[in-house]
Fold this protein.
Amino acid sequence: MGILLLAMAAIWTALVGWLSNAFTRRLPMQWRIPIFILLFFALMPLPLIDEIVGAWQFKKLCKANSGIQIDPALASGKTVYLSRTPDVEIQGTWVHIVLKPWRFIDAMTGETIVSYNTLAAGGGLLYRGFTEGGVPMTFAGHCSPRNAPASIETFKPLGVNLIEPPKRAGETK
């Protein structure tokens, strides 16, 4: 895969050089080199432009979803389970981004005690065919709040007991 990516990068660089040269060939001599350089560096990132813009969008979404909603006084002494919450596909982004809501529900009242979101991004158009996971090439495609609780050990300091979710009607496992 690495050799294929290097070959594609070499072909793209040659194509951009050729296009830049073809465009600047008819310009006056004093403008050829500056315009060639400007055009060359403007065209080079085009295969990754979706990931470049997608990284910026992903960073904004991560910042907006960086908190954990918990009231330690309300949570203390509760028994909670992780609710089955469907993932949400974020629309209007340049790369595929999925928001996974984490909701820990009070086993007695059904009230949400702890909640937070994690986000995962897929790779751009160029990279989709090169990896099974479809992860981005230019940025880390996952974010979650710091110290996001997800296990019994992380709930103990809060005085919260984490249990398995109750079975739904018709479930065997």
Q: What stands out?
A: Residues 1-44 form one domain.
